[in-house]
Fold this protein.
Amino acid sequence: MAMQIKYKQGAFRAVRTSQETVAEVNRRARRVAARAGDGYGIESGISGGRGRARAIVRPVTPAAVRDNSRRNTLLRSLDAARG
């Protein structure tokens, strides 16, 4: 006999938007920005629609834009987000 599982969507949303989840996402984004170097910053918040914690690391100075364009700095810095 197959067991049925009923998911509570509100519980998933609560986990995705909890203060702990937001703090962890921000912590990992700060580590990536720090590994990338000077001129990189983060933007974070709760996205609309599905209600998820999110963070974006991006170059905020012209020198960082050039650096990322030439060296793929952000891509190379992603490993810092692990555990």
Remarks:
- The mean pLDDT is 93.
